[in-house]
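Chapter summary example.
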Amino acid sequence: MTTLTYQSGFGNEFASEAIAGALPVGRNSPQRVAHGLYAELISGTAFTAPRHTNRRTWVYRRQPSAVMGEYAPYSQPLWTSPDTSVALAQAPNPLRWQPFELPHKPTDFVDGIRTLAHNGSIAMQSGIGIHVYAFNQNMSQNKKSRALVNSDAEMLIVPQLGALRITTELGILDVRPCEIALVPRGMAFKVDCLQATADGARELGEHSECSGYICENYGAHFRLPELGPIGSNGLANSRDFLAPCAALDDSVGEFEIIKKFAGHVWRGVAPRSPFNVAAWHGNWVPLKYDTAHFMTIGSISFDHPDPSIFTVLTSPSDTAGVANCDFVIFPPRWLVAEDTFRPPWYHRNVMSEFMGLVHGQYDAKPGGFKPGGASLHNSFVPHGPDNEAFSKASQTVLAPHKLDNTLAFMLESRYVLQPTEYAMKSDRLDKDYFNCWKGLS
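The structure predicted for these 441 residues follows.
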């Protein structure tokens, strides 16, 4: 397959064209766009947002997005939202789930989404939705090719099993486990599974299986955190975020559009591919990021530092320093602190913490937390290392130690996360989770 090329930078102004001369010069909306294209603006923020936060992209396409059939309800009962769900009475218990099962029947990315928890309000543009996905059918393998448009949220996708090909209006991203993808709110995309070939390349797999995690961000769009005393470099550097190059899909024929809007899922039919963009320029763009490029900061004297130093992306709230959502990773790193209990300490947090494990072992839960699983510790729910981790960390000789071959992540939010009925009734729910601390006396 053709090797994809990318453009580098977070929040940058990009420009790309799949057809030479398709991108206007010196203006955004000429009277007649070259090659008979239509100019269309995608606004990710209000027109009057400050320049440094304003997000928009001009696209030059074969047909405007307005050429579209009427939408009708689409049945996806396990993809739920805070505005449309009935809240369950929630005990202040720690929660953990074993890895979720892969589908047994043909299922694509849209139909394979399962909501575990959410908070806030789509209508009020606050909070997040947390989901797992699992699929074994590409979105282009249905009777009609289909695309997804999420008008409610930007989508942070964290693959756990299987590499993804994410085709967007602005181009294509190939995203493997240990990488993440960020798809802007309101932008059409589709997700297919890639499989490795004998020569080490990747191609679309017709019967491959993929699974992972999703964060729907209803609030302020994700951005890089401020570095403060760290200085001008470190953590996730902007140049390591990659945007796609234009990749025109000029196909004509019925194309199914699945739209998430106001907490509900809808279905419509377009007369041609929504990926019919020949050129574009702007800063409202899909991105991918390889977590191996994260520059980890840690203690070189004593004590386990706060997990905020592992923040990759943050969605701020209206209260400074209290995030709508922080996306945090725990990648491979050296532990060298002296006279220190090195795993995360026992903790009660005003913020709510959801964790997932991409691969390897998480140092605070060496036995019960599995790749593809999840845990939720809501506001002020006590948590920390289990009995095995405590015993080992309390007695080990404190030589420098490399935590390797692991990647865990955390979604931290100022709002209490409401587990869904699906999550609480799932046979993957670990009903004995609380027993992991019973040996501590």
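To summarize the output: Helices lie at 387-395, 421-425.
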